[in-house]
Amino acid sequence: MRVLVIGSGGREHALCWALAASPLLTKMWCAPGNPGIAQVAECIPIGVLDFPALVAFAQDNAVDLVVPGPEAPLVAGVTDAMEAGGIACCGPSREAAQLEGSKTFTKELCDAAGIPTAHWERFDDAEAAREFIRRRGAPIVVKADGLAAGKGVVVAASEAAALAAIDDIMDARTFGEAGASVVIEECLVGDEISLFALCDGESALLLGSAQDHKRVGDGDTGPNTGGMGCYAPTPMFSPALEQAAMRGIVQPALAEMARRGTPFRGILYAGLMLTADGPKLIEFNVRFGDPECQVLLLRLKSDLLPALQAACDGELANFDLRWSDAAAIGVVMAARGYPEAPEHGSEIRGLAQAAAIQGVQVFHAGTEADTSGVIRAAGGRVLTVCATGATLVAARDAAYAAVGLIDWPEGFCRRDIGWRALAR
Ligand code: AMP
């Protein structure tokens, strides 16, 4: 099979790494890719939103399957564009990708399908939103309705913070048109978990779950980020709870999407809060998480490629995947200044030494190779240093040993990935 992966982050490096191991693979490209991905796939300089160029490339090169990594091309309709050009694409249609593109869409779907989630209300008018906040009081959660790169959410501990969020999102339009309306929600309390399922429109196959660390600083302090690290499996989310969430959240969502004539195919990511009343949905995303993808794929023993193909073909019902019993962890190394203003250009050394540690995989995200082949920081999140081990402690120790070998004074990472599990 000839495969085109779309994206350039750590998630896409992990996807390419896993697909490269498939005996079914004959050729793989990645658009636009990164220097880590270039070790396993041919990188082509096409942007993730340049659909005419992506479709033409796929046609000209007889691509059998397109695997989009990030949400932006999915929400913008890359699957529809590929299919219109006769190319199979393992992702949701633009309509189905609204599960991530619009918070209101998801909340209405939850209500229609009986999926447990936080009570919510939507406002187009800032004054009405403020009035609602004053009436409800804190804690309360304010969200920009559209796509805001995971940043348009304020979990407000005080009424003043919630009101300030309305100023920011609706008046100042800090997140652009994503802030034309807001969703205001009840604040859920519990452990937060990400659950992943591969879907073919009807059937869903569990890909596992992981716990992410969204805040930039140790002990979950500081501003929110795209994710600073994660681990799997999680002791707080037992296999029985996982199955309950598949039955009570993922399956009803798939059934409702199919009933509406917009079946969901691809990776469904359910962000869950494990409340005292059971798992409740915080949000759906329509793709793998980053860095969860890296950690989940390290535990996958089966061939990923036929699974993605089966999802595309509507043939997941009798499909099975085998998973390792090992624990896996991913530590994100970010450029100094992340998330506000990451510094670009610093040199990163020691990658080969780090990767030589038993059980370690280093995935590239925001890196670039200069003309002499030196790897430099070129983004906020720059590397995901991953490891597997017989226990979470062993995986963590291996990952941090690898971090210690990466010679990059201008980079930093959290030192406590996995702490909620290890504290038990
Ligand atoms: P979202 O973009 O909807 O995933 O929200 C980003 C983050 O805000 C989530 O990962 C949660 O940590 C937090 N969050 C969102 N909604 C709620 C809620 N209703 N209650 C508590 N925390 C929430």
Rg of Cα set? 21 Å
- Assembly state of the chains shown: single chain
Structural class: alpha+beta
* Approximate helicity band: 25-40%
The DSSP helix count reads: 14
Distance between the termini: 45 Å
**Shape descriptor:** globular
- Low-pLDDT segments: none
Mean pLDDT: 96
Largest sheet: 9 strands, antiparallel
Number of DSSP strand runs: 21
Taken as a percent bin, the fraction of beta residues is 25-35%
The set of bound ligands, ions and cofactors reads: adenosine monophosphate
Can you offer a commentary on this structure?
The chain is 31% helix and 27% strand. By secondary structure, it is α+β, with helices and mostly antiparallel strands. The strands form five sheets. Strands 9, 10, 13, 14, 15, 16, 17, 20 and 21 form a nine-stranded antiparallel β-sheet that branches. Strands 3-2-1-4 form a four-stranded parallel β-sheet, with helices on both faces. A four-stranded antiparallel β-sheet has the order 5-8-6-7, with helices on both faces. The chain binds adenosine monophosphate. Adenosine monophosphate binds next to strand 6, strand 7, strand 8 and strand 15. Adenosine monophosphate is lined by residues 118, 141, 143, 150, 153, 155, 185-188, 192, 214, 271, 282-283.
